[in-house]
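tool=predict chain=A
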Amino acid sequence: MRAILKLGHDVKRNPRDYRNALDAKQMVLMFEKASLRTRLSFETGINTMGGNAIFVDQTTLRWASANRLPTWRAMWSAGLT
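tool=predict ok
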């Protein structure tokens, strides 16, 4: 936990050192509850670090239903998604 907090502080203090940390990375954002402020914060951070944020609204996708999440997580872990 301390390592994560330390890294977060370093990113805040030295943003230029991390501006390419997510180059060529696609980050999918899925939130259980709708929150525009949270979504925009994550998208801004990812884009600032060189990545591409993709927001997926789970209310419009059938595969994100509660009964399919364990299957989706297993596929994600195995690198099949």
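The chain has a mean pLDDT of 82. DSSP finds three helices and two strands in the chain.
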